[in-house]
Amino acid sequence: MIDIKKSEDIEKMCRGGKILAEVITEVLRNVKPGVSELELDKLAEKLIRQKGAEPGFKKVRGYKYSTCVSTNDIVVHGVPTSYKFKAGDVVGIDCGVFYKGFHTDMAETLRVSAQNSKLKTQNSKDEIDKFLDAGKRALKEAIKVAKVGNRIGHISKTIQDVVEGTGYSVVRSLVGHGVGKSLHEEPEVPGFLATKVEKTPLLKNGTTIAIEVIYNMGKSGVTYSNNDGWTISTEDKSISGLFEKTIAITKKGQLILTN
Questions:
Q1: Angstrom distance (rounded) from CA 234 to CA 75
Q2: What is the domain-level CATH number for residue 166?
Q3: Nearest CA among 215, 107, 110 for reference residue 156
Q4: For residue 177, which of 43, 95, 151, 214 sits 20 to 30 Å off, Cα-Cα?
Q5: pTM score > 0.90 for this model?
Q6: Does 76 map to a domain?
Q7: Residue 2 domain-assigned (yes or no)
Q8: Burial label, 56 (beta-carbon count in 10 A; 0-12, 13-18, 19+)
């Protein structure tokens, strides 16, 4: 059953989402050569608590960290390790905040550069840049169709069309989700369309969801790795990417809570 949020619930999620966005922004600034995954995780927890919230991921049974860090071929749920980033690594940071009884969830992926600079000309973009641009665009376009009267299938089809239209693969065993009092709620929000749009859940005023673009440069297959029970990587060792935002569906339009 989909939990429809009241306006006051969405207001709390909006405040929590703002905290999360600020934390992710600061953590991403620290993704540099020589910095470890564990250092980023500790920074995220410190910032979350300083802002009066709690790490949402630490409320997941059995998980001891504030973030998931997915480096290169890691797809999702990457347990932070002592690995130190190198220039050229592709790093995804997934983080959640629990604030006043509600969760928000967000992820970004970037490439580590020696200067940690995003200043590039259009002509200098290589395959990694194009890959990351596709994920950002898929999320942006998916949010546009997340509105009252549309269905989850409209989101799923949009993600699939953008990702597969640029030659990459949507991971089919991992999906976005509802979010609120629990980190993972109904409905599931796949990045691909497995049935007719009309058969997928209707988006109603007060629905809150985490839209996730989970995709690979290579094939879509994934596997558990590192023997930690959490970390999932690409089967073919290709680079993976993850972009995610928590949004609320309202009568006035989409409200991006993690902005």
A1: 6
A2: 3.90.230.10
A3: 215
A4: 43
A5: yes
A6: yes
A7: no
A8: buried
Q: How many domains does the chain have?
A: 1
Q: Which residues contact 2 (CB under 8 A, 6 or more apart)?
A: 178, 185, 186, 187, 201, 204, 207
Q: Which two tokens stand for residue 234?
A: 């690409």
In whole angstroms, how far apart are CA 19 and each of 22, 84, 133, 139, 237?
A: 5, 26, 25, 20, 34
Give whole-number Cα distances, 109 to 89, 90, 148, in Å.
10, 7, 29
**Host domain of residue 230:** 7-113+125-256
Phi and psi based region of residue 175 (left: phi greater than 0; alpha: psi -120 to 50; beta: remaining) = beta
Whether residue 119 lies inside any domain: the answer is no
- Percent helix, strand, coil in the chain, to 5, is 30, 30, 40
CA atoms within 13 A on the CB side of 69: 26
Q: Domain for residue 1, yes or no?
A: no
Name residue 202's beta-bridge partners: 151
What's the CA gap between 212 and 79, in Å, rounded?
A: 19
- Report the alpha-carbon distance of residue 155 to residue 194 in Å, rounded: 12
